[in-house]
Amino acid sequence: PALEYEQLRRKIEIQARELSYFTTNQLNKISEKLSDADDKLKWKNVIERFGDQSRVLLASIRNITNVDRYQAWREHEHESLSKLMQARLNYLQNPAKPCTDVKRFTCDINKACGYGCEIHHAMHCFHIAYALGRPMILQSSGWRYNPRGFDQIFQPPSLNCNTSMASGASSWDAYKTADVVKIPLIDDIQPRTEFMPMSIPADISKRLIRLHGNPFVWFTGQLMKYLLRPQDWLMEFMKKKFEEIKFETPIVGIHVRRTDKVGTEAAFHDISEYMKYAEDYYITYQYQNPNSKFIKRVYLATDDPSVFNDARTKYPDYVFYGDTIVAQSAQLNTRYGTESLKGVLLDIHFLSLSDYLVCTFSSQICRVAYEIMQQRVIDGAWRVQPLDDVYYFGGQNPHNQRAVISHKAIWPNEFSFERDHIIGTEGNHWDGFSKGSDKTNGQSGLYPSYKTEEIVNIGQMYTYPEIQI
Ligand code: GDP
Asked: Residue 439: its pLDDT value, please?
């Protein structure tokens, strides 16, 4: 398929969703102001009818890939790019020469934060290792999730480079010249380079942009596919759980992040806020597959054990998978150690196996699940409804969009812009508006999300000429 065709298809999904966010929000606002009971009822019907028409439209859009005859190509391209990425990473991490004869990086997983946070730290290191073509040695002794190290959980990142070859590391300033360099935290890297997140490798950028609606997420998912290759016991453990809970599709994954996050880095969200989108997904799914009979399933992951009872009581027509004991081990006071690690690995695994995710992207758990999900689904950038942030990589370079339609501000707090202005985005409010600042005219505030599109950052990275597949 032509690049333009794939881009247009994805754009239509995004535009239909933006239309629905905006209109639903505006209709709700009007409804809240009505006092007359008859008017309220009429307006409720209007809102419901609009919601239903939106879902019918989304169902049609999502079915396009079933009939355009390109799906086999998409699957093939996904496989073939994944094979290329994995071969490159395998080559990178297992140099032909003795490891002490090659320039290498070292990275310490112990950032003293949560699992998702520490994995993303390791991914930032791995991204740099990939970009510069130097193997990464991961230090993980004393890791708070498994003090005896990463390699007991996942396969060793390298067979011939180990931590004994990481000693005497130089600091980042010497990254071009020194034999061993320690990669600092992403926020501490100076100078910033264009190949850091969220950029994708230039040499495969055309293919990635055609393949996927969010090429960086796909790329990160591939880095994870290599680095998080489970040890045999973990593979068995997951398989056993899969059979035990009788995991089946269709399924929506919901992640409810509470405890220490609420009021500090994120707002409290009631279960109904998540379920509204799960319900939308299922009605749309039914429209896509009118003859299919299915049970509405939700895989529920949370660090707040009370969510299970709340969800099961309020939504009796749903089957909820998920485990109170796992949620107990996820609470702040019981969070670290190997038992808790098994819980978070299970939750991320099943969230990533879902057809659709509803979660707060302020949580790294959901971002990890979304990234891993892209290893399996084809062009699945759309398979998420975040309740707060848009997707991001902590410490990333500026996240920019391009104005595709000029805009004259009419709403309070809106700013005006011309087509082709660069807008630094700070978030989508999922009500038709995004927040950001115009880098061309210096204004900031709200803007209508439907008038902009994402800019994909392309970085010059090592091109792995050794790998020909
Ligand atoms: P963030 O703080 O939500 O951005 O994500 P982090 O992964 O950095 O830290 C949160 C930690 O809380 C996780 O690593 C888990 O240990 C725990 N946690 C949070 N939510 C869940 C969940 O849904 N399931 C499980 N098992 N653990 C969770």
From this structure: 97
Q: How far is the CA of 330 from the centre of ligand 1 (A)?
A: 6
- To test the pocket of ligand 1, the residue of 300, 303, 331, 359 to mutate (highest count of ligand atoms within 8 Å of its CB) is 303
| Ligand 1: centre distance to CA 145 (Å) | 11
For 147-159, the pLDDT digits (tens) are: 999 999 999 999 9
Ligand 1 contact, 364 CB (< 6 A): yes
Q: Is the peptide bond before 85 cis (omega within 30 degrees of 0)?
A: no
The per-residue pLDDT for range 199-246, each reduced to its tens digit, is 999 999 999 999 999 999 999 999 999 999 999 999 999 999 999 999
Q: What percentage of the chain has pLDDT greater than the value 70?
A: 100
CA 121 to centroid of ligand 1, rounded, Å: 15
Residue 264 burial (10 A CB sphere; 0-12, 13-18, 19+): exposed
469: confidence class by pLDDT, cuts 50, 70, 90: confident
Give the Å distance between the CA of 412 and the centre of ligand 1: 37
- Residue 131 neighbours by CB under 8 Å, 6+ apart: 195, 196, 201, 459, 461, 462
115 within ligand 1 shell (Cβ under 6 A): yes
ipTM over 0.90: yes
3-state secondary structure labels for all residues of 189-223: CCCCCCCCCCEEEHHHHHHHHHHCCCHHHHHHHHH
Tokens of 254: 């919901």
State if residue 335 touches ligand 1 by the CB under 6 angstroms criterion: yes
